[in-house]
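Researcher: Let's do a round of design. I'm pasting the structure tokens now; please hold your answer until I've finished.
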């Protein structure tokens, strides 16, 4: 990965990653900014950041415009067996070839759609034009609908240098989400992924270069891999923390397992259900207990009917999925007979 010319500043500023997320992104952006139709990054940036006073405001304007105007390209990303990079339109070979980031950014603006690589390159190109240091980060993402392959690098996002510190953003996930099969994109803006605190960002993003976790003591990749799978409900409900931390649970029939989530919604329903295969969204039909307060808990009792998977459901949306290995009475009998 190429580091920016302000690497020295980055090294000095890495400890200062506390981020202000109290002011919504919408505070900086009016409707006219969201709808600008300029075709080149430079012209578009000039229109978008016009009137912005600070680097944070400029960054917010660029972030919001991309999230509101670029759709996720589900056609390109149907093959999940490999990581896909955005392909720019062919240049005229008789001209000087432009930098890759610029070619991809211009292609994305023409098509009005992209995958994560295109979102990230467009954001960086526009930040470059606005004079905001920005990096493209490649790494691992954890969401429940993309688990057909082994654990490998599968996502791209950005880091920006504003307010004298590096901050983390993911404009792809801020733009909306796809369904489980990946053949439908729903635009649903979320500022959760704008200047996200590193300790929250690491729950879903693990960079190939651990320095971009922006954490003094980042978890090792194996710990990240062993955490439970996150579903789109995790984003919708604004989950900040959860327990158990590990995605694989060991229990015996009759054991009780306590689950806890810290969500942005103050009122809601929390339950844990079991199944034999991964699923997407469950609508509550078993009279789950209403929970008041952002921290919600639920206790699940393991029975003979418990399947291989446990799903934590908040307000009808699956937020987390755990694998459970159950020590059943017949398994104990088999072990004793073999001895």
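Researcher: That's everything. Go ahead.
Model: Designed sequence:
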């Amino acid at each position: 990965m190429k580091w920016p010319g302000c690497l020295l500043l980055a090294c000095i500023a890495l400890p200062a990653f506390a981020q202000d997320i109290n002011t919504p992104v919408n505070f900086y952006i009016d409707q006219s900014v969201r709808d600008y139709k300029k075709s080149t990054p430079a012209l578009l940036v000039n229109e978008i950041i016009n009137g912005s006073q600070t680097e944070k405001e400029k960054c917010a304007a660029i972030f919001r415009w991309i999230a509101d105007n670029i759709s996720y390209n589900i056609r390109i990303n149907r093959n999940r067996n490999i990581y896909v990079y955005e392909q720019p339109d062919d240049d005229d070979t008789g001209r000087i070839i432009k930098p890759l980031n610029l070619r991809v950014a211009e292609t994305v603006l023409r098509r009005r759609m992209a995958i994560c690589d295109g979102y990230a390159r467009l954001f960086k190109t526009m930040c470059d034009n606005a004079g905001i240091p920005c990096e493209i980060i490649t790494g691992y993402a954890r969401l429940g609908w993309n688990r057909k392959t082994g654990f490998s690098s599968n996502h791209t996002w950005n880091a920006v240098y504003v307010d004298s510190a590096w901050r983390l953003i993911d404009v792809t996930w801020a733009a909306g989400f796809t369904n489980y099969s990946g053949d439908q994109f729903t635009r649903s803006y979320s500022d959760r992924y704008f200047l996200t605190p590193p300790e929250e960002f690491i729950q879903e993003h693990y960079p190939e270069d651990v320095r971009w976790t922006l954490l003094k003591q980042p978890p090792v990749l194996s710990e990240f891999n062993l955490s439970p799978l996150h579903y789109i409900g995790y984003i919708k409900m604004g989950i900040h923390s959860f327990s158990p931390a590990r995605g694989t649970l060991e229990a015996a029939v009759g054991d009780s397992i306590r689950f806890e989530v810290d969500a942005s919604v103050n009122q809601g329903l929390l339950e844990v259900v079991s199944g034999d295969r991964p699923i997407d969204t469950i609508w509550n039909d078993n009279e789950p207990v209403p929970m008041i307060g952002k921290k919600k808990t639920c206790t699940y009792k393991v029975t003979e009917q418990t399947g291989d998977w446990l799903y934590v459901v908040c307000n009808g949306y699956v937020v987390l999925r755990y694998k459970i290995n159950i020590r059943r009475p017949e398994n104990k009998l088999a072990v004793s007979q073999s001895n």
